[in-house]
């Protein structure tokens, strides 16, 4: 665990309020995390998040990955029953306007500020719009803060450029349920790039740190063991508590409530919203 992550944990612990129990609960608000991004683009934190969410998600706010390839690829899946090969629909990128001079193109590790308007293919209704809020959206490209369609579709964009992204379900929200987005929806985003800036230095691949059996998904046991290890390091006394400690059980519950999108009892690589790539994977 890096010094930066340890400092983040220690800073969080200073916010604890002592109670009659030996180890008071660590509570942190979404305002402290500054996760004030829209529901439909980035994971929106609850009003109170336990230390576990800081360990797994706060680091997203301070890490950036290496440049990702701009080559568009078609993901091929084999039907287990018939053996048929089915090609998933590809991301479609329309450049609606591009300035004559482009001094800076967006790459993974950059911080982008933009306006966007999101709709569902086949529907005229707008489910989210930064224009309506008069509030540009800022995020870091390439670290899992936004849906994969944005991660792929905004690489190479210029300041002042307007793009329309037609995002198939597997690069959007898949079969997850949202109030205004039906499962399996193809999304259309009209995006205007306002600013492109250099981002901070990358940190560690947290997903790989937790996934000890390297099966590409996180179990409650793996998350709990990782959490206890970080608490022991933060306490500097080696006392990480037990697996059935109520506070730690609640922390793991909160992680799975937010990260296990399909509620199957596992957090997959795609579902995990924290840092999950090595530098050479993007």
Describe this structure in words.
- With 282 residues, the protein is an alpha+beta fold.
- Helix 7 (220-235) packs across helix 8 (246-259).
- Strand 3 and strand 4 (85-87) form a beta hairpin.
- Among the domains are: 92-198, Roll (Chitinase A, domain 3), CATH 3.10.50.40; 206-268, EF-hand (Recoverin, domain 1, Orthogonal Bundle).
- It is built from eight helices and twelve strands.
- Its EC number is 5.2.1.8.
Protein traits:
two-stranded antiparallel ribbon, 23% helix, globular, Chitinase A, domain 3, Recoverin, domain 1, 12 strands
Quick synopsis:
With 282 residues, this protein is an alpha+beta fold. Helix content is 23%, strand content 21%.
Secondary structure topology:
Layout: H1 3-13, E1 27-29, H2 30-33, E2 48-50, H3 51-56, E3 76-78, E4 85-87, E5 92-97, E6 110-120, E7 126-129, H4 130-133, E8 137-140, H5 148-153, E9 162-167, E10 187-198, H6 206-210, E11 217-218, H7 220-235, H8 246-259, E12 267-268
Antiparallel strand pairs: 1-2, 3-4, 5-9, 6-7, 6-8, 6-10, 9-10, 11-12
Helix pairs in contact: 7-8
What is the CATH topology descriptor of the domain at 92-198? Chitinase A, domain 3
Shape: globular
Beta-strand residue fraction: 15-25%
Q: Under the CATH scheme, which class of the domain at 92-198? A: Alpha Beta
Radius of gyration: 20 Å
Task: Please tell me the overall pLDDT.
Answer: 73
| Helical coverage, percent range | 10-25%
> How far apart are the first and last residues' alpha carbons, in Å?
22 Å
Low-confidence stretches: 1-85
């Amino acid at each position: 665990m890096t010094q930066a992550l340890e400092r983040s944990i220690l800073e969080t612990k200073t916010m604890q309020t002592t109670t009659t129990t030996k180890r008071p609960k660590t509570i942190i608000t979404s305002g402290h995390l500054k996760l004030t991004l829209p529901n439909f683009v980035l994971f929106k934190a609850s009003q109170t998040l336990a230390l576990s969410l800081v360990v797994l998600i706060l680091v997203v706010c301070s890490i950036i990955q290496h440049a990702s390839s701009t080559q568009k690829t078609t993901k091929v899946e084999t039907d287990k029953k018939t053996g048929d090969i089915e090609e998933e629909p590809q991301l479609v990128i329309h450049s609606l306007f591009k300035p004559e001079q482009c001094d800076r193109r967006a790459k993974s590790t950059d911080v982008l500020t933009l306006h966007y308007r999101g709709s569902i293919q086949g529907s005229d209704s707008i489910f989210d719009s930064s224009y309506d809020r008069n509030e540009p959206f800022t995020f870091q490209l390439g670290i899992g803060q936004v849906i994969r369609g944005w991660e792929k579709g905004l690489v190479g964009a210029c300041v002042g450029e307007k793009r329309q992204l037609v995002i198939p379900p597997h690069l959007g929200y898949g079969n997850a349920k949202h109030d205004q987005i039906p499962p399996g929806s193809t999304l259309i985003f009209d995006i205007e790039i306002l600013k492109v800036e250099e981002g901070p230095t990358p940190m560690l691949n947290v997903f790989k740190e937790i996934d000890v059996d390297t099966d590409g998904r996180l179990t409650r046991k793996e998350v709990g063991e990782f959490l206890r290890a970080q608490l022991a390091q933060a306490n500097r006394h080696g006392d990480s508590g037990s697996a059935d400690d109520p506070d730690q059980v609640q922390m793991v519950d909160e992680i799975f409530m937010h990260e296990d999108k399909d509620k199957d009892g596992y957090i997959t690589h795609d579902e995990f919203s924290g840092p999950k790539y090595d530098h050479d994977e993007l």
